[in-house]
Amino acid sequence: MKLNKITPILLGGVLLLGAFATQAADPSGTYIWTTPARNGGPDRTNTLVLKLDGEKLTGKLSAPGRGGQASESAIADGKISGSDVSFSVVRSFNGNSMTNKYAGKLADGVIKGKIDSVNMNGDPQSRDWEAKLQK
């Protein structure tokens, strides 16, 4: 076989592999993680529901609020690029709002990353989060 005949086949194979390598993972599903409560209270369980709609990532986050009542917030600016997942959640209370920016990597049904926010004093905060996909 001549090199001229093999070249298009090899090029097609490389392009096909490249398409699979850049394809975003599908993070759709329900994820759960816990965070320690303040002042020695019980741990707080957070539930995140994500849905991939084309290239748009949508969903909602349910987290325990004050008095044990769960509060549900829609995610904003949801994105997925390869295995990188990111979104924001804006919460409002007592006339104030607070934005948490979530970013992480999806691997084997787990999103692991950082939550960045600014506290009421204007100081930046960052903490780890690890959410596991529920079967």
CATH class: Mainly Beta
Overall tally of domains = 1
Major sheet: size, sense and barrel closure?
A: 8 strands, antiparallel, barrel
Kindly report the average pLDDT value.
84
Amino-to-carboxy terminus distance: 50 Å
**Based on the structure, what is the oligomeric state of the protein chains?**
single chain
| CATH topology value | Lipocalin
How many helices? The count is 1
Overall, the morphology is globular
Helix- and strand-based class? mainly beta
Task: Determine the CATH superfamily.
Answer: Quinohemoprotein amine dehydrogenase alpha subunit, domain 2
Number of strands: 8
Radius of gyration: 20 Å
**H and E order:** HEEEEEEEE
**What is the CATH architecture assignment?**
Beta Barrel
* Percentage of β-strand residues: over 45%
Strand order of the largest sheet: 1-2-3-4-5-6-7-8
Helical residue percent band: 10-25%
Low-pLDDT windows of residues: 16-21
Describe what is shown at a glance.
This protein has a single domain, classed as Quinohemoprotein amine dehydrogenase alpha subunit, domain 2 (Lipocalin). 15% of the residues lie in helices and 59% in strands. It has one helix at residues 3-22; strands at residues 29-35, 44-53, 56-64, 70-81, 84-93, 96-107, 110-118, 124-133.
